[in-house]
Amino acid sequence: MIVDRKPLTFWERLYLPAIWGGFKVTWRHFANSVFRGHNTAKELGDGYYPEVPWKVAEGYRGAPYLVRDQDGNTKCVSCQLCEFVCPPKAIRIIPPGDSGLKADRANAEKMPKEFEINMLRCIFCGFCQEVCPEEAIFLQKDYSLTALTRGEMIYDKEKLLALGGTHAGIQKWKQKADEAKEQETFPVKPEMIRP
Ligand code: SF4
Ligand code: SF4
Prior knowledge:
195 residues, two-stranded antiparallel sheet, Alpha-Beta Plaits, single chain, 31% helix, alpha+beta, three-stranded antiparallel beta sheet, binds iron/sulfur cluster
């Protein structure tokens, strides 16, 4: 289907009416704030940011941080899946290598020597959280990340772990050990199978 494009009228080609229309909106807001004490941001429900921080909704996906388990151990096992899947290549992981750092918990082969997220690149897409087999990285509620230099926007492992805190209620390896123990009994009874 061919859509006929209407030619611009004389006044539309001048652009002056559109510019005048824009000035009218600006003037209306200016007059409302100066003479009537209105605050457009407040009326829209945004409050006086940054003095009053914006309250994020439940399920909001902000900056991704590393988390520790309930015992304070590093959950990340340096598998690098998140680094591979990250669309803007914001994650950089240095695995421990041969002489490497030992994992600080049982049932984990290794943990990263270094783990960096470049927050200037991160688009808060959540792929890292989705792909992580260890539930070690979560998008949290931080949306206002500021720094004086570009270098400060690259968050290292210690900073990511400090910001991420403990993610209570997750203890994947304990759950796996319990499952394995249950399966030692053979044959498996129907009530032992988890939905
Ligand atoms: S949220 Fe997306 S862009 Fe940010 S680090 Fe994770 S995968 Fe990369
Ligand atoms: S955060 Fe998860 S996906 Fe990324 S390296 Fe660590 S264990 Fe692997």
